[in-house]
Design brief:
mainly alpha
């Protein structure tokens, strides 16, 4: 934040003349050439750290006012802090608001992907036809959106209701209230009927809970890993998780969720029967030559006669039959992957920007669209490089070896994980913690399949409840241990009036500083009463009638 320097004035030059003699002015010291002050160059990382520090300070001040305002209505800890409405109305309101918010995000992503699909067919006129754009025949997201809304909305409403009940019943606020409320409210995950999706979400939260616990122990000087301050630790974690995922995709595809397996298959350039032939070759089994011949029936230059029923390795001519050159094939892979995945990444970037930050979008829609476009291009470039590196590793192995091995695909995933360095530094840890549960889920399935772990029904539900209890504890009592992205996302979906209450009447120095921070973040030109608009007018989902 730049500081303004106060200008100085030389008043001696403006003295009035007098009749009497005046002593000569003292000789002026030789003026040294003082270079004009230069604006310090503030790096983007320093500016981001400053914004995060201000956000943490604001949350700490609001939490301080929350604790000071508990006794505002004379009820002590037995009285909740949501003034003007009952506990039941408060919980129901948060449930409805979060349901609509999550439902809108899911439907918005589906509509935008449908629009990209129509535009790819060059059917631009159908973009204005709602029957083709949002029809249930082509846009089947209603059931999934309802389930996602029930998950987030049910958790939010249950959490607030249980917090109010425990506060009134126990007459005090302790970490036990947050842990128990989060654990019981975690039963909302039963809104998802797919056990693999529940397991993936549970393992994701387990990774986040481990991150919070590690950061808490590290901040208290209790425990830390060697090399934890390494700059590229997130890239190493992503590469290790990618190695397990790509190994499982090639050698044990049943250990990955079907939706995630289909996404990898559609993103890559190799057909599924070819991967099956690679598995059979690595395991020393018989390759389905009849199926491969039917798959490549229209490929004139492809000769499968050299393949035996038990080949030692599947050659490059079978992996990429359209291109004889591996280099030309990899260049084509890069461009085709970019074209296939850009609509998905743009939808995942743009829709949350609009729905979760509606006020900022309405204030500067062009800047929001530009940030979403830049983020989508960078993420798509990262994924294109990932696929290209994996295919290049496979082709390189076939140039130098005559026998295939399953560990080749593990090391191929490890090398392709280095493409994460193309992503924004702030997103690398998020992506690493996103793919880590996928790798853990694959390992979980393999261990259960080999009878090294017991197969307990609905174990993912119990794991999710346990993780949510821990996550809500860290959110309420140690928020600095959570990643800023996760902390902001949970607070936004909770729509919490408990964790973000209105400030109490006793406005002290901390409240004044909080107001100063809010004023500094406002743009210079704000519509005032003279323009016919109140200065406090904001555009959020809560300000829209009916929401």
């Amino acid at each position: 934040m730049p500081f303004l320097s106060t200008p100085s004035f030389d008043l001696s030059a403006g003295a009035e003349p007098t009749l009497g003699p005046r002593p000569p002015p003292p000789p002026a010291p030789p003026a040294a050439a003082v270079p004009p002050p230069q604006q310090p160059q503030v790096s983007e990382a320093a500016a981001r750290r400053l914004r995060e520090a201000e956000e943490r300070l604001r949350e700490a001040i609001q939490e301080l006012h929350q604790h000071h305002g508990r006794d505002e209505e004379g009820g002590g800890w037995g009285c909740c802090v949501h003034q003007g409405e009952s506990c039941l109305a408060h919980a129901a309101g948060n449930l409805c608001q979060t349901f609509l918010l999550s439902y809108g995000v899911r439907v918005g992503i589906g509509i935008l992907l449908r629009a990209f699909k129509l535009a790819r067919r060059r059917s631009y006129g159908s973009l204005l036809d709602l029957k083709q754009l949002v029809s249930e025949k082509d846009l089947i997201v209603r059931e999934e959106a309802c389930r996602v809304g029930l998950l987030f909305g049910g958790f939010t409403g249950s959490y607030h209701a249980l917090r109010c009940f425990l506060r009134r019943f126990r007459k005090k606020e302790t970490p036990f209230n947050a842990i128990l409320s989060g654990s019981v409210a975690g039963l909302a995950i039963l809104a998802l009927d797919d056990s693999s999706r529940r397991r993936t979400l549970s393992l994701y939260l387990l990774a986040r809970l481990a991150q919070c616990a590690y950061n808490s122990a590290k901040s208290k000087n209790r425990f830390h890993f060697w090399g934890s301050h390494w700059r590229h630790g997130d890239a190493l974690l992503f590469s290790l998780a990618s190695a397990q995922i790509m190994y499982a995709f090639v050698m044990r595809p049943e250990s990955l969720p079907k939706s995630y397996r289909d996404f990898i298959q559609k993103t890559g350039p190799v057909a599924e029967p070819v991967y099956k032939a690679v598995r059979d070759s690595c395991r020393g089994g018989h390759v389905d030559l009849i199926g491969l011949s039917a798959l490549f029936a229209n490929k004139k230059n492809l000769n499968l006669m050299k393949l035996t029923k038990s080949p030692s390795i599947i050659p490059c001519s079978v992996i990429h039959p359209d291109r004889a050159s591996c280099l030309a094939h990899n260049v084509t892979v890069t461009s085709s992957t970019f074209k296939k995945t850009f609509p998905l990444y743009f939808s995942l970037t743009f829709v949350p920007f609009v729905v979760l930050r509606l006020q900022k979008f309405l204030e500067s829609p062009a800047a929001t669209c530009w940030r979403a476009l830049v983020g989508a291009v960078r993420s798509t470039t990262f994924l294109s490089a990932f696929v290209t590196l994996f295919q290049s590793a496979i082709c390189l192995h076939r140039k130098v070896a005559s026998k295939d091995h399953k560990l080749v695909y593990w090391f191929g995933g490890l090398i392709s994980g280095l493409s994460i360095l193309l992503e924004n530094k702030a997103r690398r840890a998020e992506l690493a913690l996103y793919v880590l549960p996928r790798a853990g889920e694959s390992l979980w399935y393999i261990l259960i399949n080999r009878h090294l772990l017991p197969n307990i029904k609905n174990a993912e539900v119990a794991l999710f409840c346990m993780c949510m209890g821990g996550i809500m504890y860290f959110l309420e009592f140690e928020p600095d241990t959570m990643a800023p992205f996760l902390r902001g996302l949970i607070r936004r979906f909770l729509a919490s009036k408990i964790t973000n209450p209105s400030p109490p009447p006793n406005r002290n120095a901390s409240y004044s500083y909080l107001q100063t921070l809010n004023v500094l973040e406002q743009p210079k030109a704000q519509p005032g009463p003279e323009n016919g608009l109140p200065t406090s007018e904001t555009y959020t989902l809560e300000s829209i009638p009916g929401l």
